Amino acid sequence: MKRLETSNLRLVTSLGFSLVELLVATAVTLTVTAGVLSLIGPARAAFSAEPEVAIVQQRLRVMVEVLFDDLVMAGAGQLNSSFAPVLPFRRGAVNDAGAGVFKSDTITLYYVPSKPAQTTLAADLEEFGTVLKLNPDSSCPQTVSPCGFTAGMDVLVFDEAGSFGRFTVTAVRASPAELTVTPNAATATYRAGSRVVQAIDRTYFLKNDTTSNAQQLMSYDGSTNADLPVVDHVVGLTVEYFGDPQPPVLKTTDEIAPWTTYGPKPPAVGVQSTAYPAGENCVFQIDFDSGQQVPRLPVLGDGSNTLVRLLAGDLTDGPWCPDSTAANRWDADLLRIRRIAVTVRVEAAIDALRGPAGILFARPGTSRGGPGWVPDQEIRFQVSPRNLNRDR
Amino acid sequence: MTMDTGREEGVALIVALMALLLLTALGAMLTVATSLEMMIAKNFRENAEAFYAADASIERAMNELATTGDWSAVLGGSLRSSFVDGAPNGLRMLPDGSTVDLAAVLNMANCRKVSTCSTNEMDAVTADRPWAANNPRWQLYAYGNLRDLLFPKTIDSSYYVIVMVADDSSENDNDPLRDGADSGNPGSGVLAVRAEAFGPRGARKTIEVTVARRLMIDPGRTGLRVLSWHFVRD
Question: Distance between CA atoms of B64 and B83, rounded to whole angstroms?
């Protein structure tokens, strides 16, 4: 009996499942499987999105570093004593924007390297002239004659009237000291004594080419060289300028006078150096009543020393340096710039990680679901160019 | 029955091992990606901190130099900043265990080698130092931990900063240990200042500034005017 019972029991356990048991088991299995699958989908999306988030952030870091390093040095070499080393437009041999332009997504910077080749002109350089006769002096670098200049070097020539031009050295001659150059920007006449200095010229701008589907931060060096991409998938670049509200002051009482707190100093009273009347230039004029040289630029804002935002109108309405007839003219208010704010926006490179255009995406992608989105990332940073904030 | 049971256990083991392998691989990938990102972000942060450390130390040095009457004493090495942490030589230990050798830093600035520079080496004409006898001869001016630059607990930084000074290269008196006194010397009242900041894991930034006494150009005011400010990329 005992054996039979045992046998019966084994028979019961091998009978299989009832329909109800089978349905319950299937339901449980399906529920668990659906639960797991519902987790796998978003996890997979997140897994493919996270590396792209990291890449977007890396693009932002590269942009900040590249722009910051050049912005912080803008004007090195006391350039803003003569001309504006920061321009809100493209200047150079190719696609020069011309005078009176403001582009919020473009900035051109000039600065002199730390050990520059430099000297002054020994003779006038006429318009379209291509030979710079140099005046070697004792402060010239003595590595390479003349004064450290070599073929291929980019140089700036500028005078005390506010005229400046960029040239590329094609040949050098030691005796007599002279450089053969290719004029790369608007030409002008430069008198003997004008400074010649090795310089770095950078234009950064946003390229938004819908034909080739290229959104890039580009760099241009002012020459006939091609534009170079710096960072891909940049969908926003905005540059804002903040300036000194006070006009420049002309110092006439000390041993090295006259000199100005910023901008080119005016010619002596009675001497005419530009289209402005004698004794005047783009930042100083003769006061009708006193006959003294007084600032041409007005006080901006509330008259305090707090930096004021310089808008497009402020930077394109004159007064013009060296004067309004010069092809290479620029707005004198550009000399006020003391702080630059830059806003950059970068998108995910893969269309499938971008959703519809809107707040999150400047350009639409193909993704329809939120978990796989990589929204555009934006950063704003401010730089006080150390060479434009000179007094301590 | 016993054989079947054994086969089922084997499959479970293999499935479990495969799942474990997959998860381990995913976890490893995520760990590598995350740690790489953290390292990149940390390097970016160190780069920024090194810049601000060098910039802060050079501002501090300029503040003291503005009120220092005799710049020739500074150029000769007999007068230093109040911001020093001992003798102007020897090793300084950084929190991460690395060291900064003050003499080596000075020699590197003067002749691009860590051992003592000879006069000929310092006067040699090179791309970095093209002014021969008027080449700058850097002297240690200020050095110490950045956190000691202000009151305790004001600056939270592990950086070590060194500020050096030298005669401006525009001088023409062939005496780099004396600030030119005559008015015909273009470098009279002009000084070169170099700041180097050292941080964890080799982080380093160098800034060079040329400053002029504002007293020379504006008798009504004291202070300095920055003539040029540069990163040094070496």
Answer: 10
